[in-house]
Each structure stands twice: as structure tokens, then as C-alpha cells.
Amino acid sequence: MPQTLTLPKMGCGTWAWGNRLLWGYDESMDAQLQAVFNLCVGNGVTLFDTGDSYGTGRLNGRSETLLGQFARDCLAPNRNSICIATKLAPFPWRLTRQAMISACDASARRLGRNVDLVQMHWSTANYAPWQEWPLLDGLADLVDRGWVKGVGLSNYGPKRLQKVYRRFRDRGVPIQTLQVQYSLLSTYPVTELGLKDLCDALGIQLIAYSPLALGMLTGKYSEKQLPRGLRGLLFKQILPGARPLLGCLEAIARSRHKTISQVAINWCIAKGTIPIPGAKTLAQAQQNIGALGWQLDSGEIAELDKAAARVPKTMVQNNFQTR
Predict the structure, then answer these.
(1) Quick one: how far is CA 303 from the chain centroid?
(2) How far apart are CA 46 and CA 44, in angstroms?
(3) pLDDT at residue 226 above 70?
(4) Residue 52: which domain range?
(5) Domain count, the chain
(6) For residue 60, what pLDDT is reported?
(7) Secondary structure (3-state) at 180
(8) Is-contact 186 213, C-beta < 8 A?
(9) Is residue 318 part of a domain?
(10) Cα separation of 122 and 52, whole Å?
(11) Is 54 a catalytic residue?
């Protein structure tokens, strides 16, 4: 059996790099992203999450390629603690367990190293449940072969999670992690689906992606200053009702001498999750790192919980999230 997978308290989601790569990759970003990576590792952020569908098409999995390069070139003293997680997409043409083994092998070649944590990117239960079981068997095969240190899932709800857990348990393969969209504007997986309690009972670590709600919880946007495109339309619908929550975040941030985003990320940590905020610049990485090394108290957490529960319109849930 492979060695036990050890996860840090906070990670860095390279989905941000993936989106940037998909929408016009510029090689001049490489040096900046390497600096971001080095800064994160040097400050104890050693979990990096990506996916084989990030930077696809003509870019040929560029996100994984860059991440592997950054890990090799990193000179931080704790570089040996780097944990690289990737998510394998259940594309329509992936139908067999061998397809997932081949996909992981391709990811490892792009990374230039073995994958530490391999994850199913999403469940096909909502549209093609028959496709999913062979692919999951392929993930378990990777653990049996010693190719990866652990296996995880992404966007699974409690009913589907328990079915997969039993199948893996029967093979003696533990599910290490479950990744879901979770933030003060997306509490649904925990408050309504009860995933945190279930994960705790099953010994699964919950990973929170999009902990800053696509940037809405940074405090930099308002109804008069919106991001472009579809994100701007979404923000326009949510921000008016989220004002009391942002005000609560701002008050706590001021009293703590922190930023709004640092308080929002720290809240995710306080809830027992590993948040994976994206970072493309040194300033963003430094902001994220500032969420570490301190803790919100129970009163502050309760205030944020109440403010979040009163937001009338929250983040749209991932279409692939199962129940």
C-alpha cells in the first residue's frame, strides 16, 4: 500500500491558472506564477489542486505541466512537503477503468512526477450513472498499484458519497478527500446536505473550492463596480442581499487587522475544511497566506454564520453537484 497522504491546513487551487490558460495563455505569466508558487510553499501552503481539464485543447494540459515545472524548480526548504492533487474528468469518451488509469498516467507525465492525490472531477450520477462505476474502479486501481498516495472525490452529495464509500471500503481503499463548493455564500453542501458531519464520520477531509465566491467575498466589488461578463451579471444579483454579510466581514476584519478575504478564508478553516483559494499574482497569494496563523473566535464565527444565513440569494451551485 502507498504511504499515508498528509494534507496541510490550506491549499492553493490552480483552477484560477486553468481558467487563465483556457482564455488566452501568455507565457510571460510563467515567471510570475513560479514566484506565486514559491511564496506559497515558503509559507506552508503545500497542497496544490489542479485538473486534467484545465488548460486543454491546444494548450495540452498546460496547467499540470506548469505545476510540475514549478514543483521541480522550487527552492523552498519544505519543498519535499509539496502535495499535488489533480482531478480527472469523466469525459464522455472515458468509459472503462483503464481509461482512468491512462488519464492519470498522462497527468503524471505532464507533471513530471507521480500524482499524490487523484480525484474524480465530478460525478456522472445526474446524467449517466452507468458510466461512473468503471471510472471509480480505475481510481481505486491506481491506489492498489501504488501510483498515487490517495484518492478523492469532487462535487459528490451524501447519498452518492456513501455508495462510493462502501464500494471503496470493500476494496480496502479509503476515500481521503471530498471537494465541494463552499464559502459564506455557498454553505449548501454543509448546512443542507450535511456533508461535513458525514465526512467526519467516514474519516474524509472536506476541501472547500471557491472559498471567496469568485471574488465576491474580497470586498473589492460593489453594485457600481462589477467584474465583466457573466460573473458581473451574477454579482449584480447577489451583492445587494449580501451587503449585511460583507459588512459583518468588514467589521471583523477591521478589529482583527486583517482583510475581508482573509476573514472569509479563515472562516472556512474554522469550519474544519481545507480552503483552496486561487492565486495568479503575488499580491493575491500574500492575501491568502494572511488567513493562516490565527483563528476566529466562536463569537465571530456565530456572527458570520447568522449573516450568511440571512443572504437571500447565494452562489449558484455547481450543476454536477449530486445529492
Answers:
(1) 25
(2) 6
(3) yes
(4) 11-216+272-294
(5) 1
(6) 67
(7) strand
(8) yes
(9) no
(10) 12
(11) yes
